[in-house]
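U., I forgot to send this yesterday:
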Amino acid sequence: EVQLVEAGGGLVQAGGSLRLSCEASGFTFGDYAIGWFRQAPGKEREAVACHRRDGGAPYIADSLKGRFTTSSDIAKSTVYLEMNNLKPEDTAVYYCAVDALWCSLVMDYWGKGTLVTVSS
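Result:
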């Protein structure tokens, strides 16, 4: 059974930083694309970052480059999302998801999400 457990969310002031983690289990880590997504209140879910199956350079949404980075620890089957210089508009539930092919808004498995709240 595929399981994805996000952690690291919380309340932070604007300009602060958070590091989210997503621990994965139930599948071979390199066999799936692993992505970070977020959904703000009243808005549609959007892609934040993606680790491709081929292990190439991870994707970061253009609007977040320079503030967000993503990394993975294969030994721990964990991916991370480092978020710096956070803004109130970054407030959202952040989800980790995996797919057997590639990252998109339709992924095979989703975690339950972790809430990030950025105060002004």
